[in-house]
Description:
Layout: H1 2-10, H2 19-29, E1 54-61, E2 64-70, E3 77-78, E4 86-91, E5 97-102, E6 107-111, E7 118-120, E8 127-132, E9 138-144, E10 152-158, E11 165-166, E12 173-179, E13 186-191, E14 197-202, E15 210-211, E16 219-224, E17 230-235, E18 242-247, E19 254-255, E20 263-268, E21 274-279, E22 286-291, E23 298-299, E24 307-313
Antiparallel strand pairs: 1-2, 1-24, 2-3, 4-5, 5-6, 6-7, 8-9, 9-10, 10-11, 12-13, 13-14, 14-15, 16-17, 17-18, 18-19, 20-21, 21-22, 22-23
Helix pairs in contact: 1-2
Amino acid sequence: xxxxxxxxxxxxxxxxxxxxxxxxxxxxxxxxxxxxxxxxxxxxxxxxxxxxxxxxxxxxxxxxxxxxxxxxxxxxxxxxxxxxxxxxxxxxxxxxxxxxxxxxxxxxxxxxxxxxxxxxxxxxxxxxxxxxxxxxxxxxxxxxxxxxxxxxxxxxxxxxxxxxxxxxxxxxxxxxxxxxxxxxxxxxxxxxxxxxxxxxxxxxxxxxxxxxxxxxxxxxxxxxxxxxxxxxxxxxxxxxxxxxxxxxxxxxxxxxxxxxxxxxxxxxxxxxxxxxxxxxxxxxxxxxxxxxxxxxxxxxxxxxxxxxxxxxxx
Length: 314
């Protein structure tokens, strides 16, 4: 049970923050049993139209969270073996590399075939939630100030020569950075403690901030659609965490999923027709996909494993 609670809690927040914040999520998942994807017809189904590209996510494999990859309709393969917990993997835009974080606030790069696993941006200290810039030459990150776990900012750090730049300078938590496909914007979550956590949009140089949501709840884990018109995210507007979408300018808010449990961490398919996400709708946390406009979801991760933190690459 302890591993399950940890998996669901850390899927929402960027670091091991104060317990009072995590408890909001645990109230939901404590009511659910550990069953897995029970229907074999829902696991590794044949690829549906539009489900191109490759999924990457983390699964609890033995004692550690490891990276797994695979296309929808194919049996996924474990990519990593090193004895460290891995979280929040993201595909590069070219699909040749992955970036992920560890529980210690370290950032690693790894080739798509599992080779050349190296640490990067170590000079930033405790950094989490890496996201590739649209040219794959830098990373957007959540960086915690000193040892303060409820005080973080959004930074951009080059992978080669250059100086890291801070984009935000607000009090509290600025986290979940997600750059737009055209590189013009970065959307992120801003909040503090048990107060509201809302979505904001800024330029890659920290200019032109715009608040996108004002729902007085937790609006978290935003991701841009491939065409840059829509942002999918997770929100507890109705008590539990469901998937929602909003226009890039903050208009046309729409609920996509409605489940009395946990639906969170959306990731778009390359063609924008599908969303992958994590959910405990069959018991333990698994990876699911559903049409981006809303519709019936299907489970696509191994039934015997707890899985989370999905991304969908080319």
